[in-house]
Structure formats: C-alpha cells, structure tokens
Amino acid sequence: MKKEIQIKSEKEKTDILKLCICESCPSYVDCGGQGKAKEKAFCMAFAGKSACITQEKGCLCEACPVKSKMNLRNIYFCTNGSEEQQNKKT
C-alpha cells in the first residue's frame, strides 16, 4: 500500500530538515553555486527532485534519519523525486 507523507506543521518540517543528511551525500550538489536555492530533504513532498543534481554518485538515503523516522521505502530522492512522487510511479 502506498503511503502519503503528511507534514502537519512548520515545526515538523523544521525538525525533519534538522535530521536531513542530504548535504553529506556523494551525489549532492549545492544549487546555490548555480544561482538557485539551496536544496535538501528531497524525500519530502515540499522538496522533491533536485533542480540541479543530475548524476547519481552514491546514495546515503538508506542511512538517513529522515527515511527511518518517516518509514520511507525509496532512495535517490534527489534524482527520482519525493517519496510521494516515486510512489505514484509504481
């Protein structure tokens, strides 16, 4: 069964962003260097697929505390989209 991710408040969103390890991932690219907003928490619907990450150079999603906390099942959120987006593809 596909699970929809529900973020109930700005505090919950902030708490999730604090757990995020995207910036330490080998695939991570700081979009700020390309004149775009800095990105992270690609697994969440408020983020989703990156605007500038195009190459998969390794994935830390399996070890991410957000993935565990939210009981997510997918990986490579930066290139494949949020959990919700990937679930809609299957």
What would you say this structure looks like, in words?
- The chain is built from four helices and no strands.
- With 90 residues, it is mostly helical.
- The chain has one domain.
- It is globular and about 30 Å long.
- It starts with 9 loop residues before the first helix and ends with a helix.
Count of DSSP-assigned helices: 4
- The helix-strand sequence is HHHH
The oligomeric status of these chains comes to single chain
**Number of extended strands:** 0
Structural class: mainly alpha
Number of structural units classed as domains: 1
β-strand percent reads: under 5%
**Mean pLDDT over the residues:** 88
Reported for the largest beta sheet, the result is:
none
Q: Using only CA atoms, what is the Rg?
A: 12 Å
pLDDT below 50 for ≥5 consecutive residues: which ranges? Answer: none
The N- to C-terminal Cα distance equals: 11 Å
Range of helix content: 25-40%
Specify the overall morphology.
globular
